[in-house]
Structure formats: structure tokens, C-alpha cells
Amino acid sequence: MRKFSEQYVRRSGTYFCVDKGVTAVVIKGLAEHKDSYGAPLCPCRHYDDKAAEVGQGFWNCPCVPMRERKECHCLLFLTPDDDFAGNDQVAISLEEINEATANL
User: Fold this and answer.
1) d(CA 25, CA 100)
2) What pLDDT was estimated at residue 40?
3) How far apart are CA 61 and CA 5, in angstroms?
4) Grouped pLDDT means (10 residues each) for the chain, 104 residues
5) Start-end of H helices in the chain
6) Annotated active-site residue in 17, 44, 72, 74
7) Distance CA 47, CA 52 (A)
8) How many C-beta atoms surround the C-beta of residue 31 within 10 A?
9) Is the distance from CB of 8 to CB of 70 less than 8 angstroms?
10) Is the whole-model pTM more than 0.85?
11) Would residue 44 show up in a list of annotated catalytic residues for this protein?
């Protein structure tokens, strides 16, 4: 999911959050959902039935709001004018993800 996120940031012209901890937590959540359900379901939402949501595809990353309007509820993919967008952050290392999520 880290590589996917880095590629999508470049391809979509968006940026990671200035707080790399946010980026790390979201990427880890996406990876866990992909491992558990077979798709990177948005980890920032509550679902009564995650498997059913995966099947519908609306909240699979990149979700429909992101693809259609560049609106990322998770703060993973931010437009350049967003107050939380980082300046040159188009990469995050596995070490940064592990460090930021070690105590979760």
C-alpha cells in the first residue's frame, strides 16, 4: 500500500499530509484491510459490514469521492491548496510507517 500511495500521489497531483504520522496510520489501515478483505477499504470510516462495503467498492481506495472530486476523508491524498498538505512529501519509508504505528 505504501508503493500504491506514493504512485497515486504523483499520478493525481496530490500530496501526503504534512504530519507523516497521519499518512503512516492510513497506509497501515489500508494494508490491513487489503490483507483481511482483499481490497484497501478506507480505514477512516465505520462500517457495519466491511466485507459488504468492499464488495460495493465505493470506499475502496482511492474511493469514489477521491476519484471524482479529489476529496480524501482520510487526509492521505491532499490537494496542494489544502492547509494540511505537505510541500514535497511524495514518499514515505517503511521505517517511518512502522515507527509511527508501533504503539497502535
Assistant:
1) 7
2) 98
3) 9
4) 94 93 96 97 96 97 96 95 85 90 85
5) 2-12, 20-37, 50-56, 64-69, 94-101
6) 44
7) 9
8) 17
9) no
10) yes
11) yes
